[in-house]
Design goal:
This protein folds into two domains: 132 residues, Toll/interleukin-1 receptor homology (TIR) domain (Rossmann fold), CATH 3.40.50; 114 residues. 39% of the residues lie in helices and 20% in strands. It is built from nine helices and eleven strands.
C-alpha cells in the first residue's frame, strides 16, 4: 500500500487535515504529525523515522511553509533520501502562492490553489493511484467524458441525495414534490398549493458541466417545463440548491402562511 509523509507548516493545518483524510479514503497510508506523534515522544526522532519509512514526502507549499525552519529541515532530509534511492520521492503540493524552494522549481507540482479536487487528482495520479480509487461524489464532474470511469454512477448518487434532501424540506414545509422522469431527467419540482396561490421551484442538472439550474415558472411536474425555463444558476453543490429552495419556502410561509391544500410527494423510481 502506498504511503506518504505530509510536510507542512502548522498554519496550513486545516488544509492538511482535509488532505490527509481524503488520501486515507483512497487507501493511502498517511503520515501526519497530529496522528503519529504522541505525548512524550521525540518530535525530531519521529519525524526522521516517518520520512525514512514512507514511499513519498508531500511538501505543502505556502508562504508559511517555505519560511519554516522545520519544513526546511524535513525537505533537506527528504532530498537526501531521494538522491539515495534515485527515484521521485518529494512531491510538491502547491497550496498557496509562494516563492518555491530552488530545488523544487523544475518539478511539476499538484496545484490546489484554484481547484482542490483537480489538485487531489493530480497528486493521486502522481503516486499511481487508479481512477476507481480517486473518483467520488465530490469530484465526478472532473471525469465526465473520460472512458472507463464510473462518473454516471456518482451523478446518479448525487441526484438521489439531492432528492432526499429536498423531499425532507418539502415535508417540513408542506409542499408537494415531483421528480422528473425520462422526459426531463435529473429534475425536480417543489410547489406550494393554496387557494388562489401557487408557487413552484424547479431544479435541473444541465449542460456538459452538470450544473444545477432553477426555474420559478409555475409547474407541479418538471416534465412540463422546457430547457429554457431553467434560467437561474445554482452551481454544482447540493447545499446551494437546498438553500435556494429553503429561502423560497420561507418567503412563501412569511407572505402567505402554510399551504392549505393537500401536499403530495411523487418520486420517480430510479
Amino acid at each position: 500500500m502506498t504511503s506518504i509523509f505530509l510536510c507542512h507548516s502548522s498554519v496550513d493545518k486545516p488544509f492538511v487535515e482535509k488532505l490527509a483524510n481524503d488520501l486515507k479514503k483512497t487507501k493511502i497510508n498517511v503520515w501526519y504529525s497530529n496522528w503519529e506523534i504522541k505525548v512524550g515522544e521525540s518530535i525530531l526522532g519521529k519525524i526522521e523515522e516517518g520520512i525514512r519509512s514512507q514511499d513519498y514526502l508531500g511538501i505543502i507549499l505556502s508562504p508559511d511553509s517555505v519560511a519554516s525552519q522545520w519544513v526546511k529541515s524535513e525537505l533537506s532530509t527528504a532530498w537526501e533520501k531521494q538522491l539515495e534511492i534515485r527515484r521521485v520521492f518529494v512531491l510538491p503540493i502547491l497550496y498557496r502562492d509562494c516563492d518555491i524552494p530552488y530545488i523544487l522549481r523544475d518539478r511539476k507540482y499538484a496545484d490546489f490553489r484554484f481547484n482542490y479536487n483537480q489538485g487531489f487528482i493530480e497528486l493521486c495520479s502522481g503516486v499511481g493511484i487508479e481512477t476507481e480509487r480517486i473518483i467520488s461524489e465530490n469530484n465526478w464532474r472532473l471525469f465526465v467524458g473520460k472512458r472507463n470511469t464510473p462518473w454516471r454512477t456518482f451523478r446518479e448518487q448525487e441526484f438521489k441525495r439531492l432528492v432526499t434532501v429536498l423531499v425532507d424540506r418539502a415535508i417540513q414545509y408542506k409542499w408537494s414534490a415531483w421528480v422528473g422522469g425520462c422526459a426531463n431527467p435529473n429534475s425536480m419540482t417543489l410547489s406550494a398549493l393554496k387557494p388562489g396561490k401557487r408557487h413552484s421551484v424547479s431544479i435541473k442538472m444541465v449542460g456538459n458541466n452538470h450544473e444545477y439550474m432553477a426555474s420559478l415558472r409555475e409547474a407541479y411536474n418538471p416534465n412540463h417545463l422546457r430547457a429554457s425555463d431553467f434560467d437561474i444558476p445554482l452551481g454544482t453543490s447540493i447545499n446551494s440548491c437546498e438553500e435556494f429552495v429553503w429561502r423560497q419556502m420561507k418567503d412563501f410561509r412569511f407572505n402567505y402562511g402554510e399551504p392549505t391544500k393537500k401536499h403530495i410527494i411523487l418520486q420517480h423510481v430510479f
